[in-house]
Design goal:
The structure is a homodimer.
Chain A lengths: L18 H22 L1 E2 L1 H5 L1 H10 L6 E4 L6 H9 L34 H11 L7 E6 L6 H10 L7 E7 L10 H16 L13 H5 L4 E6 L3 H14 L3 E6 L7 H5 L6 E2 L18 E2 H15 L3 E5 L8 H7 L4 E3 L4 H13 L3 E5 L2 H4 L3 H10 L5 E4 L17 H6 L5 E3 L4 H14 L3 E4 L4 E2 L18 E4 L4 E5 L4 H13 L4 E5 L2 E3 L3 H10 L3 E8 L4 H11 L7 E6 L9 H7 L4 H29 L1
Parallel strand pairs in A: 2-3, 3-4, 4-6, 5-6, 9-10, 9-11, 11-12, 12-14, 13-14, 17-18, 17-20, 20-21
Antiparallel strand pairs in A: 1-7, 8-15, 13-19, 16-18
C-alpha cells in the first residue's frame, strides 16, 4: 500500500496535501520511526515529538532558500524523510547510511553536521543576517534543555538587539532533556505555560507578549505557547510569523515520544533506543558473560568511595544516565549536581567546590568536555584545582559518529600545564586510578571508552602496583616495543601474542599516564628496541605519540625509532565501534599488519643501506 | 603624612573606622591608583569604579571565611590595597611584583588567579555550596559586560534553582565593557534603572522585587539598583543581605573611572592606561620610527580589502578597540559585529554568516578564542566553514601575564582537522596571508603577537611568493637549520647572523604554515643538516615542533635531528614582553646560546661515540 509519505520526494510535494493527508503523513512518519529504530537504534522520543512541527515548517518555509537549523539535530528523522531520504532512512546510523544527525553532504536541506547543543540560534542569526539582501529566513528549532547552553544564551542576548532580522527561534518545549530538564529556565517555561492556560491560546500577532518574561526582558518578540501537535494551527502561526517579517521567539509545547504509548510514559528510557545486536560487534556488546561497561564500573567505584569519603561530590551536565551518575544520585542526592547542558559552568562550579576542600569528580563525555576548554585552562590548570575529570566516551563511540567521538581529549588537555592524564586498561585499574587521583589532590583527567571492560577473570595480572606517573610492562620481547594506554592495552597484548606466533617478540607497556609521562620507561624501551610503536585511540596530532616524540626530542634521544599509531588528522564517521576501529587500523589484526609492515620496511632499509655502504667501499 | 590607608594592614582594621574615615579611605585608595597607574600601566577606570563597593564588602563580610570572587579581577586594586598589599602595589604588573589580577599565591583573600570573564558566579556558587556546613558566603562581583558570557548565564540558570545557598551575586553595572557594553542584557539593566528611578530606592528586603525581570524570571531574589558610591548605604544593604542568609542578586550602579574627571568623561580610553615606557622594552615600543603594531596593520589590511570586497564582514567579542576593528566599524558599520564577551556565540554566528557566502573574519585574542574551542570543533572544523580566525595577542603579551598569554592556540587548533594555521613574519606577510585565507575559502587561523611589526623598510626581501602550505627559505647554511614562524622568524635570522660570526652557518626557514605543513621543506632540511631546530613562541606541547616530529615519525624520517625550542609546559608570568621572552629563551641572544649548546653537545656525543666505537675494536 502506498502511504502519503511514499509520495513525498521533497518538501515541494507538501504544498498539494489536504489537511487529512497531512495528518496521515504524520502517522506515516511515526510508523517509519517505530519500524526502523528498534533495528538501527537512535533517537526515538525526540523525533516522535516534532513530527507535526517539521511538517508545518516545511509547508510554510522554503528551506532551499530559507535555512533550517535543528539544534543537536537528534530530532531530524522527520526532516530527513521529508527531504528525499525516506528510503535511505532504513540504513540510518549504519556504516555508509545516513547519519543520525543533519549532514550537508546528504542534502541541501541540511545546514550543518552537528550534535553538540546550543549553536542553532547563533548560526540561524548569522544566516538570517547573511541573507539580509536575499529575503531568506534563519529558523532555529531548539529544545528547552539545549537552550540552557551558554552559547545559546549568548545568542539570545545578541539577537535581542537585532529585532529586524528574519530570525525565528522555535523553543521546542517538551520539558525533557535526555533526562528531565533541570534548571531555572525550564521552570520558567513551565510557569509560562501554566499562566498561558488562563489567558487563552496565542496567535502570531503576539497576543501573549506579556508571557515569556525571560525572552521579553531581552527584547525578544515572544509568541506562544502553542500546541506542537496541531499541524493546522502550527501552519497558521508560522505563516503569521513569516508574514510579520521580524525576529520572533515561538514557544511550542510538544510531547516527547508523542504517539508511542510506552515512549510517552517513560520519556527518559525512550529518548534513544539501542539497535538490534549485530553479530561481531563485541566492542559494545555489554551482555557478553561477565562484561560490564566502563560507565557502570565508574559509578560503582564512585559509590564505594562515597560511602567512606563524605567529601566526595560529583557533577554531570545533563547526563545523569549516560555517565551512570543517576545511581550515585539515588544514594547521595545532596552530593550529585546536574547543571543541565552547561559544561563550562559545570567545570567552574566544580572548581569552586574543590576550592572549599571537597573531593570533586566531574563526569562529562570526552567530546562535550571540549565545551569547557577555557575553564579547564583557567579554573583547573592555571589554579591547579584538584578536580577529577571523568572523560567517558573517549575514543570511537560508534553509531553517533564524528560529533560524539572523543578523539581530541589528550591533545586539548595536554596543551594545558598541570593536569595529569590517565587511562585504565580495565575495570580494576579504573577503580584504582579514580581513587589515586582523588587521594593525590591534583587536577586529573581519566579517559575511558564507550565499551565493555574486560571481564574481571580475564584481566591481565597486575605487573606493577599503580604509582603516580609510572607505567607497567606487561610483556617483554626484543624485536619491537608497543606503548599503549587505556582501551588499546588489551588489543596491543593480543597483537603481541599473534606476532609471537610469527616469531616476532614484542614488549608491551601499559603507559597508564600520558602526563606525567613515564620518562624512564620511554628512554629504556627506546634503548632496548629497534622500533617503538605508540598505540592510541586518539588522533596522532598531540596524543601520546606526540608526547613521547616531544620528550625524546627534548632529551635528545633516538626519536627515529618511534612510530605513532592512532587516529588520523580527520573525522571518524559513524558505524559500529568494531567496524570503525577496524577501519582505523586499531584492532589486533590491523595492529599486527601495521607493525610487521614497519619491521619489514626497516629490514629492507637496513638491507639497502648495507648494500649502499658496500657500494661505497 | 599618614593616610587612613596606611593604617590598614588587613580587612580587620576596617571595623574600627568611622564614617568619615571610610570616606577618607576611599579617597586614599583613589589617590594610590592615580599615582601608580601612569607609571606601571593597568586597569584604571574599573578599579576607580569599585572603591566604595570593595570597602563595604570587606567591612560586612569576612573573606578569610567567606569567599570573594571578582570576575576578571581587573578591578582588584582596592581589594589588594585593603588586604595587606598597599606597599607592594607600587610594583604591580612588573616582573616579581603583584599581578594585575587576583592571585592566591599573594594572599589568602584571593580565591582564584584569573582574568577570563564570566566564571565568578559558578565558582562562588560552588564555594557557597561547598561551605554549606560552615556557614560561609560565596560572593561574586561581576560587571554588566562579563555577565553576558555564556558561562555566567549558565551559572545564573543553575543558581536559580538553589535559592537557599549563601550566594551573593553583585552586578557591578557601569554600563561599560572595555568599550560601551552591547547587547540586550545591558539594555535591560538600563531599563531597570530607569524604572527604579520612579519607584524610589531599594532596600535589602527586596522592595524592588518587581524589577530586574531577567533575574526574577530565573527565580533569583533581586535587590537593587543601589548607588555603588555610597559606602554607608552599601554597608547597610550588604548587611541586610547577609542577615537574610539566602541567594541574592544585588544590582549596584557604579561609574567607571569615578573620581577622576578625565576617566569619567572618556571611559573607553581610560579603561586601562599604558605604563611609562621602559628603556629596552622594544618589543612593545610601538613608537619607534616606522614601527606599527600588528593590530593596526591587520585592520588596515581589512579596510583595504573591504573596499573592494563587499562580502567581507567581521566580528569582535567586546574588543572593538583591542582588535583594531573599531576603525573598520567606523567605515563599514553594517559589516562589523560586536557580540559582547561571547566568544562561543561569536564563532557560531561567524559560521552562520560564512554559510551564506559572506567572507568572514573573526578577530579574537588567542587566549580568549579558547572559549570557543567547541565551536571551532563543530561549526568550523567539522563543517569546514571558511571563517578566518585573526588570533591577535598570540604568544607572550607582557604585563597581563599568564591569563592573557596566547601560548596554546597552535595546539588546540591543530588538534582539530581541516583548519589551516599561518603566522606572518611581518606586516606585508600579514596582509598577504589575510587575503590568501579569504581567497582560498578555507577555515584558517592566523596568529600574530602583541608587538610592533618590523618597519617596512627593514623587512627581509620576500624569497618565495606566498603559496598555500609552502614555506620560504631566507638563508642557507650547512651546520644547522632553524624552522621558525611568525614572531620568531626575525629573531631566528638575527641569531643566524650572530652565529655566522662564530663560524656556524645556519639555514633559516620561515615556515609560514603550521598546517598544512611544508613536508617537502621538512624532509629536505632534515636530510641536509645534522641539527634542525624549530623555534616558536608557543608551548612545545603540540606546537610546530610537535607537528614536525609527528610528520617525520609518520614518514619514518630521521626525527632525532629535530630539537624543539619554545615555551615550557608551564604558565608564563607577568613582566614586560621583552623580559619574558628573554626569560623563556626566545630572544636572539638566548637562541644562539641554546643552538650552539646543542651543537657542541652533538660534537661531544659523536666524539665519545667515536671513542667507544674505537674501544670495541
Amino acid at each position: 500500500m502506498t502511504t502519503v509519505l511514499d509520495r513525498i520526494d521533497g518538501p515541494d510535494d507538501l504544498g498539494g496535501l489536504s489537511g487529512d493527508e497531512l495528518l496521515q503523513l504524520a502517522d506515516d512518519i511515526r510508523d517509519r520511526i517505530v519500524e526502523v529504530m528498534p533495528r538501527n537504534g537512535g533517537h526515538f522520543g525526540s523525533s516522535l515529538g516534532v513530527v507535526e512541527l517539521t511538517i508545518a515548517l516545511h509547508r510554510v518555509f522554503d528551506f532551499a532558500v530559507d535555512r533550517l537549523t535543528l539544534d543537536v539535530s537528534h530530532q531530524c528523522y522527520p526532516h530527513k524523510m521529508l527531504t528525499g531520504r525516506n528510503e535511505a532512512y532504513n540504513h540510518i546510523r549504519t556504516k555508509g547510511g545516513p547519519a543520525g544527525y543533519t549532514r550537508p553532504s546528504e542534502s541541501r536541506y541540511d545546514s550543518f553536521l552537528w550534535a553538540h547543543a546550543g549553536t542553532s540560534i547563533s548560526t540561524a542569526l548569522g544566516m538570517a543576517r547573511g541573507m539580509r539582501d536575499k529575503d531568506g529566513w534563519g529558523v532555529a528549532v531548539i529544545g528547552d534543555s539545549s537552550i540552557n547552553s551558554g552559547v545559546a544564551l549568548e545568542a539570545l542576548v545578541h539577537a535581542g538587539v537585532m529585532p529586524d532580522e528574519k530570525l525565528l527561534i522555535i523553543l521546542n518545549d517538551n520539558n525533557m532533556s535526555i533526562a528531565p530538564t533541570v534548571g531555572a529556565l525550564s521552570r520558567h517555561f513551565q510557569e509560562t505555560c501554566e499562566a498561558a492556560e488562563e489567558c487563552g491560546p496565542a496567535d502570531g500577532e503576539g497576543a501573549n507578549d506579556h508571557l515569556g518574561g525571560f525572552f521579553t526582558s531581552l527584547g525578544h518578540r515572544y509568541v506562544g505557547p502553542v500546541d506542537g501537535h496541531n499541524i493546522e494551527s502550527l501552519i497558521e502561526v508560522l505563516s503569521q510569523v513569516r508574514e510579520g517579517g521580524r525576529s520572533t521567539v515561538l514557544h511550542v509545547q510538544t510531547v516527547k515520544g508523542r504517539g508511542h504509548i510506552e515512549a510517552e510514559k517513560d520519556q527518559w528510557k525512550w529518548h534513544a533506543v539501542g539497535g538490534a545486536k549485530k553479530p561481531g560487534d563485541e566492542a559494545v556488546d555489554f551482555e557478553r558473560v561477565g562484561q560490564t561497561p566502563y560507565t557502570d564500573l565508574f559509578v560503582q567505584a564512585m559509590i564505594r568511595r562515597a560511602r567512606i569519603d563524605p567529601d566526595l561530590e560529583t557533577i554531570t551536565a545533563a547526563m545523569p544516565c549516560g555517565t551512570g551518575l543517576r545511581h550515585f544520585a539515588a544514594e547521595f542526592p545532596d552530593r550529585c549536581y546536574d547543571t543541565g547542558i552547561a559544561e563550562s559552568h559545570a567545570i567552574a562550579f566544580a572548581a569552586g567546590l574543590a576550592h572549599t576542600g571537597k573531593n570533586v569528580v566531574a563526569a562529562i563525555y570526552s567530546t562535550f568536555l571540549q565545551r569547557a576548554y577555557d575553564q579547564l585552562f583557567q579554573e583547573i590548570s592555571l589554579n591547579q584545582n584538584p578536580v577529577v575529570l571523568a572523560m567517558d566516551r573517549a575514543g570511537i563511540v560508534g553509531p553517533d559518529g564524528a560529533t560524539h567521538n572523543g578523539c581530541f581529549d589528550i591533545a586539548y588537555v595536554r596543551s594545558l600545564p598541570h593536569i595529569a592524564i590517565m587511562a585504565p586498561r580495565d575495570g580494576s585499574e579504573l577503580d584504582d586510578m579514580l581513587n589515586m587521583a582523588l587521594d593525590e589532590k591534583k587536577p586529573t583527567a581519566i579517559r575511558y571508552p564507550r565499551a565493555a571492560a574486560p571481564a574481571p577473570d580475564r584481566e591481565y595480572t597486575r605487573e606493577t602496583p599503580l604509582a603516580w606517573g609510572r607505567s607497567e610492562t606487561l610483556r617483554h620481547g626484543a624485536d619491537v616495543a608497543l606503548i599503549a594506554y587505556g582501551s588499546m592495552v588489551y588489543p596491543a597484548m593480543e597483537a603481541a601474542e599473534t606476532m609471537s606466533g610469527l616469531g616476532i617478540e614484542a614488549t608491551v607497556v601499559n603507559a597508564r599516564f600520558v602526563r606525567p609521562l613515564d620518562r624512564d620507561m620511554l628512554h629504556k624501551v627506546l634503548e632496548e628496541h629497534p622500533l617503538v610503536c605508540t598505540i592510541e585511540e586518539h588522533t596522532t596530532n598531540g596524543g601520546l605519540g606526540a608526547a613521547c616524540l616531544e620528550e625524546a626530542a627534548l632529551s635528545r634521544r633516538a626519536t627515529d625509532k618511534l612510530f605513532p599509531i592512532g587516529l588520523p588528522d580527520a573525522f571518524v564517521e559513524h558505524g559500529t565501534r568494531t567496524e570503525m576501529l577496524e577501519e582505523m587500523g586499531l584492532t589486533p589484526r590491523c595492529l599486527v599488519q601495521t607493525i610487521t609492515h614497519q619491521l619489514s620496511e626497516m629490514a629492507k632499509r637496513s638491507q639497502s643501506e648495507f648494500i649502499s655502504e658496500a657500494d661505497t667501499y
